[in-house]
Amino acid sequence: MADPQNSVAKLALEDGTIFTGRAFGAIGQSSGEVVFNTSMTGYQEILTDPSYCGQIVVMTYPLIGNYGICHSDQESQRVQVQGFVIRELTRTPSNYRSECDLNAYLRDAGVVGLEGIDTRALVRRIRVRGAMMGVLSSTELDDATLLRQARELPPMLGRDLVREVIPDRASAWQQGFDSLSAHLIPPRPPEKRVVALDFGMKWNILRCLTQSGCQVIVVPGTATVEEVLSHQPDGIFLSNGPGDPAAVGYAIETIRELVGKKPIFGICLGHQLLGLALGAKTFKLKFGHRGVNQPVLHTETGRVEITSQNHGFAVDRASLPAVLEETHINLNDQTLEGMRHRSLPVFSVQYHPEAAAGPHDSSYLFEQFRSLMD
């Protein structure tokens, strides 16, 4: 285990910048795309979100770990990030639900952490230069070596990371909300069957679907049309996930064939894949949207929803085919946040209506999906 007060760790960015601080979590070295998240809370959900596969996450909020770790708050079976960078680590968490501290959690997961750097300077650099590849190490500390390794890393553009996080077989999911969250979506009897294509899905999406009255069958994102339809679903869900959507050609082809056969609801990567399947294009954002305070306009109602987001790619609004119409727009940069088919029961959003962590302004979308299956 790293001693947070004594061990040195470094983060090297491909543009030549080096940040030196203190190590925590596991001793070792990792690499990935360096991105930032603006959430004040929810670090455990961030760490275990499969959409962060291949990325080193920087938290903008300065104090992280203060409420510890509760394993029931995980969004997948393991920590998914390549590395974790923060300003200050809380060594003594205070929370009656806490089971261990953040340092021990990352140590046991084999994930390298870095604290004690100026995260504001790092985030400003990413905002100016864009998300960059980087190497995080508490073993190799030679600047020249770390910079060379960072510059040799393959970019995120063109990478299919879905295959690294999907399940290896189909399974049933039956868990809804616990007593702390039961008020967010009124529980309904499981009268509809949904097949969820898992491209790196957060568990709270499955809880929301179950709570909305769905029997959920989770299948790998590599499943064929025949495998999906063999479960005789009333609806099909397309999950979030990591990497470049344009690189996941097998999923795009499957979704293209599924459109029109059953009602479809997509979130995040699922939204991007649906757009590609219907003829739109995607592009890489400069530094992405990651946080729990992103304002989104619902164009039909004029209502502004505060949303949880985690994506580095987006569907190009100008490329939408005539069969699709916009439903939600990001108020910070005017990017597309939601769309629907003009004649078929098919819709998707770029943000995360299931939150975990984050606001619940958009949980109505699960009820909307349930209504489409009626």
Provide a descriptive summary of the structure in words.
By secondary structure, this protein is an alpha/beta fold. It folds into 2 domains: 8-151, Carbamoyl-phosphate synthase small subunit, N-terminal domain (Glucose Oxidase, domain 1); 162-373, Class I glutamine amidotransferase (GATase) domain (Rossmann fold), CATH 3.40.50. 20% of the residues lie in helices and 31% in strands. The chain contains 9 helices and 19 strands. The strands form 3 sheets. It has a 10-stranded mixed β-sheet with strand order 10-12-11-13-14-19-18-17-15-16, with helices on both faces. A 7-stranded mixed barrel has the order 1-2-8-6-4-3-9. A two-stranded parallel sheet has the order 5-7. α5 links the parallel β11 and β12 (214-220). α7 packs across α8 (269-277). The mean pLDDT is 95.
How are the SSEs placed, and which strands pair?
Blueprint: E1 8-13, E2 18-25, E3 29-37, H1 43-47, E4 55-59, E5 63-64, E6 83-85, E7 88-89, H2 102-109, E8 112-115, H3 119-129, E9 132-137, H4 143-151, E10 171-173, E11 192-198, H5 203-211, E12 214-220, H6 225-229, E13 235-238, H7 249-258, E14 264-267, H8 269-277, E15 282-298, E16 303-315, E17 324-330, E18 336-341, E19 346-349, H9 364-373
Parallel strand pairs: 3-4, 4-6, 5-7, 6-8, 11-12, 11-13, 13-14, 14-19
Antiparallel strand pairs: 1-2, 1-9, 2-8, 3-9, 10-12, 15-16, 15-17, 17-18, 18-19
Helix pairs in contact: 7-8
